[in-house]
Amino acid sequence: DLPNFKYLKFVTVPDDQSRLAMLETGELDIVGEILPHQLKSLQKNKRVKIKRIDNVPSLFGLSHKTFAEPILKDKYFCYAIRHAINRQEIVDKIYLGEGYPLYMYASKTELGYDPKIKFEFNPQKAKEYLKKSSYKPGYPVMLTYATDTPNAPLVSAAIQQYLQNIGITVKLRQLESGTAATYSRNRDPRIGALLLYTWGGGRDPSTRLLLSIKSTSPYSSYPDRPRKQEVDALVDAQARELDVKKRAGLLKKVHEMMLEHPSGTNLYGLNMLYATSDRVEYNWTPQEVFIFNLQFVKVLK
């Protein structure tokens, strides 16, 4: 069917509150990427329809900057972090339940994601791994968060508390998002040991893996990882492979090697919360992080 409208206007509104206010006044008809704590006021407006979808690309985690902090090359230290963080509590308390824990370097919509991979929240096990590691009590580990990560101050403070509960001293620092990206690209030690990040990206993992895992990439956080040549070859091979089953097998090997020697701690993904005015009907396209297929918007009045 042909669209039942003649014109479609795109409006860029960087400020969250302004964007939602324009939705409520009828100046905008479709708004995406709404945060859970912003729903309360929208729910009072009968002219606004709130919607959600959980099968969209979403991945939040901690990038381990081994070039800035050598302790992160100690896999037992990384395993301690893995078991110390209560992912479900972060989702429930900070994002009001609008998300789900993640335990591997993949969003749940992409090829290679394995829902069977899970790590329990177990502070005692985390303490045991910490004892096996080379970490010295009292040594400060810097956790950096950027301004473009939703609820980053709250999430970072929660992670700081979880890690301090098992004996890791954590200091927090906020960076402007452009500065954080520049430090990461240049492998500048000023980025700190841990970087809280978010990756929406697309439905395919190739770009993320090539940029962040391959040792020759400027964005690789663990350029001298064990068996790096093998990991690099697998990342390249999966990017070229057209057979879905063969590619899934290659991705499985990549994830297994990353889980053994982590270059990050994966945390959670979020539902896509979006809203429309009551004058249009629109449903988010599954597995897409951006607003697509606007030809299917129906103008109701």
The CATH superfamily label of the largest domain reads: Dipeptide-binding Protein, Domain 3
Question: What is the name of the CATH topology of the largest domain?
Answer: Dipeptide-binding Protein, domain 3
CATH architecture name of the largest domain: Roll
* Rounded Rg: 21 Å
| Shape by Cα distribution | globular
Structural write-up:
The longest helix is centred in the C-terminal third of the chain and has 17 residues. The strands form three sheets. This protein has a six-stranded mixed β-sheet with strand order 4-8-3-7-5-6. The protein has a three-stranded antiparallel β-sheet with strand order 1-9-2, covered by helices on one side. 34% of the residues lie in helices and 18% in strands. The chain is built from ten helices and eleven strands. With 301 residues, the protein is of the alpha+beta class. Helix 6 links the parallel strand 5 and strand 6. Helix 3 runs antiparallel to helix 5 and helix 9 packs antiparallel against helix 10. It folds into two domains: 69 residues, D-Maltodextrin-Binding Protein, domain 2 (3-Layer(aba) Sandwich); 210 residues, Dipeptide-binding Protein, domain 3, CATH 3.10.105.10.
